[in-house]
Amino acid sequence: MKEESKLTRRCNQIVFSFIAMVLITFSSLLQASPLSKEEQAHVIIVTSPTAQKLQKLADDIGTDIYFYVEGLTGRLGSLVDRNGNTLFSPSVVVYGKNGRISATSSIPRLTVLLSDSGEVLISIGGGNVKLTSEIITNLKSAQYLSFWSVDYLFDKLDLSQFSNLKAIELMWGEIISLDLPADGQLINVNIENYSLEIINNFDKQQKLQVLHLSVENSIGYKKLENSSSLEVFKLWMGKDSIDVSKIVNLKSLSIFNVEYNSIKNVVQLDNIKSLTFWWAKDERISTISLPKSVEVFAMIVSSREAIMPLVNLPKLKKVIINSDTIRGLPKFESIPTLENLPQLETLEISDSKLTSLDGIEKLTSLKYVRFENNEITDISALYPLENLIKVDLSQNKITELDDLGKKPNLNVVRLNFNPIEAFDFEMVSNYPYCAFTITGTPFIRNAPKEDKLKLKNLWQKGHL
């Protein structure tokens, strides 16, 4: 039945090709109306040697393949989101159907967008669709590749001859080695693959700007050292070491399984704006200084001793420090050292068994604080912070809400799932533009009828 289905598809292709040639001939001879866009696209597909070769190779292994033509039946989707951030997943916008095709792990198909000359522009595969090395070879003119959970019928993905390739996304799928283009035109790369052991030709990617790499069993990325083009780098550390301070133009750096030797000289990155270190446990990390240019700093720590003091950082605006809830939960007890941070507006320390907010009163520029899922009982340290706009103290051990002091811009205070048994209605009235949330507290469950009426009144006014 399978062979019969293949034969039927090939016969249909021959018939469609014949019809296409007839349409072209009669349009020319009879000076008929121009072909529709769909008909023009079909002509390009059936007369493209590349498309027909890909169709045959796909038929041979039972792979469903769909073709579209740029400007006629489809186009390249946007490569940035509404906020201007890079989208790694290229998509094909299908005309007439208001559809968008992106790689997924659930739909087994190969989608190809052709140019008007019949060459491959984009290829998208997913859902365990089968791919042979011959199919890959015939995609070599592509500018964008996106493969999600495809079934590679080979061990080595060779993209060395893909001289037009600007962006690739390779999510999962079993391959052992990867050759990037030898003539490096890559700008964006996103690879998440835990079977991949080696990646070649990183040193040839002279235009690479954005790289997300989750390859904990791999080597090859050390050759990124001395890259002058890379600006955004997200790395799940594999078997290679790498000195990130040599990637001199980095603006954003995120490292999972961070090692001391990789970041010990991070202070040399004069252009860096965002730093994220995941699962830090080496105590030597606490001795590292950060560059003065950093604006956002986030850290997931596996050891209290690995936390570095954040001192004298004039541009720092946001700090996130959380415990590693997966690999061990260190107890913070108190706020880490945060001093001389004149522009710090956001501070988040959650899931860390924090018991005290002492020290936060010095951070007078704070506007947004989040201390969710800790063991805080006393919030008096917030009293001097007059610029606060939002406060999240959900899931702590707060039993009563004290006066928060002068806060003209206070907008939200979240106290959900705290053991609050009494609610100071008079104090709340001092903050007419603030909404307090107290979901899951004993007071909400046990409030007398009179208090419930007061709560309803506050809710109607937008205070709850």
Automatic annotation (TrEMBL):
Keywords: Cell projection, Cilium, Leucine-rich repeat, Repeat. PROSITE patterns: LRR (PS51450). The keyword Repeat applies. It comes from the Bacteria. The keyword Metal-binding does not apply. It is found in: Cell projection, Cilium. SUPFAM superfamilies: L domain-like. This is Internalin-A.
